[in-house]
Structure formats: structure tokens, C-alpha cells
Design goal:
Length: about 120
């Protein structure tokens, strides 16, 4: 973190990580909202998420602006739906929306998308 917002750091290997410190639910919501700017195959944690290594400050700003206007709930896997209690009694689309809403932190994601980010090299 830095006083004016969050940090996006590029490692020596070229990986690009956004250090949000927002929690896994906000990070899942950010991944869903950022589209191609985030790596969809990652398992986010409480601290950071992996971004597309081709992003630079200009393309990041465009992705951030676009995501601000379309915060998206996280995708839910079929395996997660199968583990949902009473899943057999719910229509699949309702179970999916319910679980997706439980996994999301929309306000946390919106807060981060409004904040300034700074690119650094580690």
C-alpha cells in the first residue's frame, strides 16, 4: 500500500500483482469485473490478485475505468454448486446467483476501483 491508494508491482519474472489487501471476496469480485485485465485462472488470496502481464499504467487506467462501471459478481463453479446445501431443491440459475452473491464483496471492489494505483518494480 501507499498513502494514496494501492500498488501494482511487477516482479523480476514479469508477473504483475495488484496488492489490494481487500480480502478474497473483494479480489474475486475484482477478477470478475476486470475481464482480460486479470488472470481468470488464478486462485486469489486476501492480499493480491494477478493481472495480465501486458498491462501498463495507460491500459490499466482504461481497464480500471471500465470495471468501475460494470462491477461483476464472481463466477461459480459446478463443483461449488454441487456442494451448496439444498442445491437439488433450487433451480441451477438461482443457486448460482445465490452463491455468487455470497462470494462477492461489491463495495470492497468498488472502493478499490475508485482508488489511485501506483505501478512499481520489485
Amino acid at each position: 500500500m501507499h498513502p494514496g491508494g494501492s500498488v501494482i508491482a511487477r516482479s523480476d519474472r514479469g508477473d504483475l500483482r495488484w496488492w489490494t489487501w481487500a480480502g478474497v471476496r473483494a479480489n474475486l469480485t475484482l477478477i470478475a469485473s476486470l475481464g482480460d485485465a486479470a488472470d481468470p485462472a488464478q486462485q486469489p488470496d486476501d492480499a493480491c490478485l494477478r493481472l495480465n502481464p501486458d498491462l501498463d499504467p495507460r491500459t490499466w487506467a482504461a481497464a480500471q475505468r471500465a470495471a468501475r462501471h460494470s462491477v461483476t459478481l464472481p463466477e461459480v463453479s459446478a463443483r461449488a454448486l454441487d456442494g451448496l446445501k439444498f442445491s437439488a431443491a433450487l433451480p441451477a440459475h438461482l443457486a448460482g446467483r445465490t452463491l455468487s452473491a455470497r462470494l462477492a464483496d461489491v463495495e470492497g471492489a468498488r472502493t478499490l476501483l475508485r482508488e489511485h494505483t501506483r505501478f512499481v518494480r520489485r
